[in-house]
Protein backbone atom coordinates (compact mmCIF):
# COMPACT_ATOMS: atom_id res chain seq x y z
CA UNK A 1 0.00 0.00 0.00
CA UNK A 2 2.90 2.35 0.84
CA UNK A 3 6.32 2.10 -0.77
CA UNK A 4 8.76 4.86 0.18
CA UNK A 5 12.37 4.49 -0.92
CA UNK A 6 15.53 6.42 -0.04
CA UNK A 7 13.64 9.39 1.41
CA UNK A 8 15.92 12.30 2.25
CA UNK A 9 14.69 15.59 3.68
CA UNK A 10 16.82 18.69 4.25
CA UNK A 11 15.69 21.84 6.01
CA UNK A 12 18.56 24.08 4.93
CA UNK A 13 21.71 22.58 6.44
CA UNK A 14 19.69 20.26 8.67
CA UNK A 15 19.51 16.70 7.28
CA UNK A 16 16.29 15.44 8.92
CA UNK A 17 15.63 12.22 6.97
CA UNK A 18 18.60 10.18 5.83
CA UNK A 19 17.58 7.65 3.21
CA UNK A 20 14.50 6.14 4.85
CA UNK A 21 12.92 3.05 3.24
CA UNK A 22 9.38 2.21 4.36
CA UNK A 23 7.02 -0.44 2.99
CA UNK A 24 3.56 -0.90 4.52
CA UNK A 25 1.27 -3.72 3.43
CA UNK A 26 -2.48 -3.33 2.97
CA UNK A 27 -4.32 -3.63 6.31
CA UNK A 28 -1.04 -3.37 8.26
CA UNK A 29 -0.69 -1.12 11.32
CA UNK A 30 2.85 0.23 11.58
CA UNK A 31 3.83 2.12 14.73
CA UNK A 32 6.78 4.54 14.57
CA UNK A 33 8.61 5.36 17.81
CA UNK A 34 11.79 7.22 18.65
CA UNK A 35 13.16 10.24 20.50
CA UNK A 36 12.05 13.79 19.70
CA UNK A 37 13.80 15.10 16.61
CA UNK A 38 14.35 11.66 15.09
CA UNK A 39 12.34 12.53 11.95
CA UNK A 40 9.13 10.57 12.70
CA UNK A 41 6.65 13.39 12.03
CA UNK A 42 8.63 14.64 9.03
CA UNK A 43 8.48 11.16 7.49
CA UNK A 44 4.72 11.05 8.03
CA UNK A 45 4.27 14.49 6.45
CA UNK A 46 6.36 13.42 3.45
CA UNK A 47 3.95 10.51 2.89
CA UNK A 48 1.19 12.93 1.83
CA UNK A 49 3.54 15.67 0.62
CA UNK A 50 2.74 18.17 3.33
CA UNK A 51 6.54 18.21 3.28
CA UNK A 52 8.30 17.77 -0.04
CA UNK A 53 11.05 15.13 0.17
CA UNK A 54 14.42 16.40 -1.00
CA UNK A 55 14.92 13.12 -2.85
CA UNK A 56 13.55 9.59 -3.03
CA UNK A 57 10.31 8.02 -4.25
CA UNK A 58 6.87 7.48 -2.69
CA UNK A 59 4.16 5.26 -4.16
CA UNK A 60 0.85 4.94 -2.31
CA UNK A 61 -1.92 2.66 -3.54
CA UNK A 62 -0.13 2.41 -6.88
CA UNK A 63 0.18 6.18 -7.39
CA UNK A 64 3.56 7.89 -7.69
CA UNK A 65 3.19 10.87 -5.34
CA UNK A 66 6.27 12.67 -6.63
CA UNK A 67 5.36 12.46 -10.33
CA UNK A 68 4.75 16.03 -11.55
CA UNK A 69 1.56 14.86 -13.30
CA UNK A 70 0.03 13.54 -10.07
CA UNK A 71 -2.91 15.59 -8.75
CA UNK A 72 -1.82 15.66 -5.11
CA UNK A 73 -5.15 17.03 -3.85
CA UNK A 74 -6.99 14.12 -5.43
CA UNK A 75 -4.48 11.63 -4.01
CA UNK A 76 -4.85 13.14 -0.53
CA UNK A 77 -8.48 11.95 -0.51
CA UNK A 78 -6.99 8.45 -0.26
CA UNK A 79 -4.64 9.42 2.58
CA UNK A 80 -6.40 10.46 5.78
CA UNK A 81 -4.26 12.37 8.26
CA UNK A 82 -4.91 13.11 11.92
CA UNK A 83 -2.68 15.60 13.72
CA UNK A 84 -1.77 16.40 17.30
CA UNK A 85 -3.92 19.56 17.06
CA UNK A 86 -7.47 18.93 15.95
CA UNK A 87 -7.65 21.75 13.35
CA UNK A 88 -11.45 22.00 13.51
CA UNK A 89 -13.29 25.10 12.31
CA UNK A 90 -14.67 26.68 15.50
CA UNK A 91 -17.68 28.29 13.76
CA UNK A 92 -18.88 24.97 12.30
CA UNK A 93 -20.65 22.09 14.03
CA UNK A 94 -19.05 18.66 14.32
CA UNK A 95 -21.12 17.53 11.32
CA UNK A 96 -20.16 20.66 9.37
CA UNK A 97 -16.47 20.00 10.00
CA UNK A 98 -16.82 16.38 8.86
CA UNK A 99 -18.85 17.12 5.73
CA UNK A 100 -16.93 20.12 4.41
CA UNK A 101 -14.35 18.09 2.47
CA UNK A 102 -16.97 15.51 1.47
CA UNK A 103 -18.85 18.30 -0.32
CA UNK A 104 -15.94 20.44 -1.55
CA UNK A 105 -13.50 17.68 -2.48
CA UNK A 106 -15.76 14.66 -2.87
CA UNK A 107 -18.40 16.61 -4.81
CA UNK A 108 -21.34 15.21 -2.83
CA UNK A 109 -24.63 17.05 -2.36
CA UNK A 110 -25.40 18.39 1.12
CA UNK A 111 -27.86 15.55 1.76
CA UNK A 112 -25.36 12.88 0.65
CA UNK A 113 -22.56 14.55 2.62
CA UNK A 114 -24.72 14.75 5.76
CA UNK A 115 -25.53 11.03 5.53
CA UNK A 116 -21.82 10.18 5.10
CA UNK A 117 -20.85 12.59 7.90
CA UNK A 118 -23.38 11.16 10.35
CA UNK A 119 -22.17 7.63 9.58
CA UNK A 120 -18.57 8.75 10.22
CA UNK A 121 -19.56 10.40 13.53
CA UNK A 122 -21.45 7.22 14.45
CA UNK A 123 -18.22 5.28 13.86
CA UNK A 124 -16.37 7.40 16.41
CA UNK A 125 -19.25 7.36 18.90
CA UNK A 126 -20.31 10.98 18.43
CA UNK A 127 -23.51 10.88 16.36
CA UNK A 128 -25.31 12.52 19.31
CA UNK A 129 -22.87 15.46 19.16
CA UNK A 130 -23.34 16.22 15.45
CA UNK A 131 -24.80 19.68 16.09
CA UNK A 132 -22.24 20.68 18.76
CA UNK A 133 -19.49 23.20 18.01
CA UNK A 134 -15.85 22.36 18.92
CA UNK A 135 -15.97 24.63 22.00
CA UNK A 136 -18.79 22.43 23.35
CA UNK A 137 -16.69 19.26 23.01
CA UNK A 138 -13.84 17.86 25.11
CA UNK A 139 -10.39 17.53 23.55
CA UNK A 140 -10.90 13.80 23.10
CA UNK A 141 -14.23 14.37 21.38
CA UNK A 142 -12.65 17.00 19.10
CA UNK A 143 -9.93 14.55 18.12
CA UNK A 144 -12.58 11.90 17.37
CA UNK A 145 -14.37 14.45 15.13
CA UNK A 146 -11.03 14.98 13.36
CA UNK A 147 -10.77 11.21 12.81
CA UNK A 148 -14.36 11.12 11.53
CA UNK A 149 -13.50 13.93 9.10
CA UNK A 150 -10.63 11.88 7.68
CA UNK A 151 -12.63 8.62 7.58
CA UNK A 152 -15.59 10.28 5.79
CA UNK A 153 -13.49 10.55 2.61
CA UNK A 154 -13.01 6.75 2.67
CA UNK A 155 -9.21 6.87 2.56
CA UNK A 156 -7.10 3.84 1.73
CA UNK A 157 -4.45 4.82 4.30
CA UNK A 158 -4.62 6.68 7.64
CA UNK A 159 -1.63 8.58 9.04
CA UNK A 160 -1.70 9.56 12.73
CA UNK A 161 0.82 12.09 14.03
CA UNK A 162 0.84 12.05 17.86
CA UNK A 163 -2.99 11.94 17.95
CA UNK A 164 -3.23 11.76 21.75
CA UNK A 165 -0.33 13.95 22.91
CA UNK A 166 -2.48 17.10 23.34
CA UNK A 167 -5.13 15.25 25.38
CA UNK A 168 -5.63 14.94 29.10
CA UNK A 169 -4.82 11.35 30.17
CA UNK A 170 -8.46 10.45 30.90
CA UNK A 171 -9.46 11.36 27.31
CA UNK A 172 -6.82 9.25 25.57
CA UNK A 173 -8.71 5.96 25.87
CA UNK A 174 -11.64 7.09 23.71
CA UNK A 175 -9.34 8.06 20.85
CA UNK A 176 -7.33 4.83 21.08
CA UNK A 177 -10.59 2.84 21.06
CA UNK A 178 -11.58 4.47 17.75
CA UNK A 179 -8.12 3.76 16.31
CA UNK A 180 -8.36 0.15 17.45
CA UNK A 181 -11.75 -0.20 15.73
CA UNK A 182 -10.32 1.30 12.53
CA UNK A 183 -7.53 -1.25 12.75
CA UNK A 184 -10.04 -4.08 13.18
CA UNK A 185 -12.01 -2.86 10.15
CA UNK A 186 -8.89 -3.38 8.01
CA UNK A 187 -7.60 0.18 7.62
CA UNK A 188 -3.92 0.53 6.66
CA UNK A 189 -2.40 2.77 9.34
CA UNK A 190 0.92 4.44 10.15
CA UNK A 191 0.97 5.84 13.68
CA UNK A 192 3.57 8.10 15.30
CA UNK A 193 2.84 8.09 19.03
CA UNK A 194 4.16 7.60 22.55
CA UNK A 195 1.26 5.28 23.46
CA UNK A 196 3.41 2.20 23.95
CA UNK A 197 0.62 0.09 25.43
CA UNK A 198 -1.39 0.64 22.26
CA UNK A 199 1.66 -0.21 20.14
CA UNK A 200 2.19 -3.47 22.03
CA UNK A 201 -1.42 -4.58 21.69
CA UNK A 202 -2.44 -3.27 18.26
CA UNK A 203 0.61 -2.87 16.00
CA UNK A 204 1.69 -5.44 13.43
CA UNK A 205 5.14 -3.86 13.30
CA UNK A 206 7.07 -1.31 15.35
CA UNK A 207 9.73 0.90 13.77
CA UNK A 208 12.33 2.65 15.92
CA UNK A 209 13.82 5.81 14.38
CA UNK A 210 16.77 7.88 15.54
CA UNK A 211 18.78 10.62 13.82
CA UNK A 212 16.63 10.54 10.69
CA UNK A 213 17.00 6.83 9.99
CA UNK A 214 15.26 3.56 10.80
CA UNK A 215 17.46 1.84 13.36
CA UNK A 216 15.37 -1.27 14.04
CA UNK A 217 11.98 -2.75 13.23
CA UNK A 218 10.03 -5.88 14.04
CA UNK A 219 7.02 -7.22 15.89
CA UNK A 220 6.05 -5.41 19.11
CA UNK A 221 7.26 -8.48 21.04
CA UNK A 222 10.69 -8.29 19.40
CA UNK A 223 11.22 -4.52 19.57
CA UNK A 224 9.88 -4.04 23.11
CA UNK A 225 10.93 -7.41 24.53
CA UNK A 226 14.30 -8.13 22.93
CA UNK A 227 15.63 -5.12 20.98
CA UNK A 228 18.81 -5.84 19.06
CA UNK A 229 20.31 -2.36 18.65
CA UNK A 230 21.88 -0.52 21.59
CA UNK A 231 20.00 2.72 20.76
CA UNK A 232 16.68 0.87 20.73
CA UNK A 233 17.49 -0.79 24.06
CA UNK A 234 18.35 2.57 25.62
CA UNK A 235 15.14 4.18 24.36
CA UNK A 236 12.89 1.29 25.46
CA UNK A 237 14.65 1.22 28.86
CA UNK A 238 14.03 4.93 29.31
CA UNK A 239 10.33 4.52 28.47
CA UNK A 240 9.91 1.64 30.87
CA UNK A 241 11.57 3.59 33.70
CA UNK A 242 9.09 6.44 33.18
CA UNK A 243 6.03 4.18 32.78
Helices and strands in order:
Blueprint: E1 2-11, E2 14-24, E3 29-33, H1 40-46, E4 55-60, E5 63-64, H2 72-76, E6 79-82, H3 94-104, H4 110-123, H5 139-152, E7 157-161, H6 169-184, E8 188-192, H7 196-202, E9 205-210, E10 213-218, H8 220-225, H9 230-242
Describe the overall structure.
The protein has 243 residues and is an alpha/beta fold. Helix content is 38%, strand content 25%. A 6-stranded mixed sheet has the order 6-7-8-3-9-10, with helices on both faces. A hairpin with a 2-residue loop joins β1 and β2. α3 packs across α4, α3 packs parallel to α5 and α5 runs parallel beside α6. The protein is globular. It starts with a strand and ends with a helix. 40% of the residues are buried.
SSE succession: EEEHEEHEHHHEHEHEEHH
Number of helices: 9
Fraction of residues in helices?
Answer: 25-40%
Largest sheet: 6 strands, mixed
Strand order of the largest sheet: 6-7-8-3-9-10
- Could you give the distance between the termini? 34 Å
Number of strands: 10
Unreliable spans are: none
The rounded Rg comes to 18 Å
Q: What would you call the structural class?
A: alpha/beta
Principal-axis shape: globular
Percent of residues in beta strands: 15-25%
